[in-house]
Specification:
312 residues, alpha/beta, Rossmann fold, 2 domains, 13 helices, 9% strand, globular
């Protein structure tokens, strides 16, 4: 055993002995630790930090609008030692700066670049984001916190006359860091009706249900290797579903999340306003869906891919 390994083993032993009220004579260090926290902090200082940091994943969560994404994000934010960054799309055209409106953003480097450059290099934007993420990942890792990124897939897949050709958030992050990711989905009929209620279906053209299903298929295809969870399963059994999500993301699970998730305030919180997680009544107009699409194949393919039965 090397001297460093011997010292590490000794400090861990000392921490255990201090907890149990025993005290051992130091074997490999000049001075014994004075407390449990001293023993553990000195033990951590001996670990090969770079190698361990290299293994730390960035967690990502992906979903369409009106599928419960903000609820999932809040519940993950309620997990211990977890930092959630909400609604990320590096190349979104829905930002004020992208639409020509300049905002006062003195600490936002990407926004400042966009104000000064009418056509910034997308690779530069990605590099700036990844550089910031590297700093955040390391500082949070040092204090034992996990970083979770919530995608803003609406910007990518549900704007304009065609889906914008750009890397997904997961592809961008995975180019630099290890990742753990999940996708959450909802019955397309319910999410479509929710989008109509918000007026968000008008951000893409044509604003039809079959076009929505075509874009949903493209989204699912982009994340076809990522673990998938259903909104309906979550609201029906919040504890077990979120535990499964946390297990997949390698996050510690806190079973008191249902009492604290509502304390978090995130953008995109358009639907559920209450503090209770549960199934909601269906929106009116489900029957009219039958009159709102022409491409039966793409609609049925979407439902089959998402593993929902096409029924009203």
């Amino acid at each position: 055993m090397t001297r460093q390994a011997s010292s590490l083993a000794y400090l861990v032993e000392q921490a255990a002995d201090l907890i149990s009220g025993q005290g051992l004579t130091p074997a490999t260090l000049a001075e014994p630790p004075t407390s449990v926290s001293d023993a553990l902090s000195r033990a951590i200082s001996l670990l090969p930090t770079t190698n361990h940091l290299n293994l730390e994943p960035i967690r990502t969560i992906h979903h369409f609008s009106c599928t419960g994404g903000t609820l999932f994000a809040k519940c993950l934010a309620a997990m211990a030692n977890t930092l959630v960054l909400n609604e990320i799309d590096l190349h979104s055209t829905m930002t004020p700066s992208a639409s020509g409106q300049a905002l006062f953003t003195p600490t936002d480097m990407i926004s400042l670049v966009r104000q000064g450059d009418q056509a910034p290099d997308p690779e530069l934007i990605s590099d700036l984001f990844l550089a910031d993420l590297a700093v955040l990942r390391e500082t949070q890792w040092k204090i034992g916190r996990s970083v979770v990124l919530r995608d803003h897939s609406h910007s990518h897949f549900l704007t304009g006359s065609e889906i914008r050709p750009q890397p997904t958030l997961l592809e961008t992050v995975a180019s630099r860091f290890p990742t753990r990711s999940v996708v959450t989905v909802r019955n397309p009929i319910d999410s479509w009706l929710s989008m109509q209620k918000q007026g968000w279906h008008e951000t893409f053209q044509p604003s039809t249900f079959d076009e929505y299903c075509r874009r949903y298929l493209s989204f699912v295809s982009s994340y076809n290797t990522v673990a998938r969870f259903k909104y309906e399963d979550f609201v029906g059994d919040p504890n077990n579903t979120l535990r499964a999500i946390c297990d997949h993301l390698h996050l510690g699970f806190f079973d008191g999340f249902a009492d604290s998730f509502s304390l978090f305030s995130f953008s995109g919180d358009s639907g559920r306003k209450g503090k209770k997680i549960g199934a909601r009544s269906h929106h009116q107009g489900r029957e009219e869906i039958l009159e709102m699409y022409n491409d039966h194949r793409v609609v049925r393919d979407c439902f089959a891919s998402l593993e929902y039965e096409f029924s009203l």
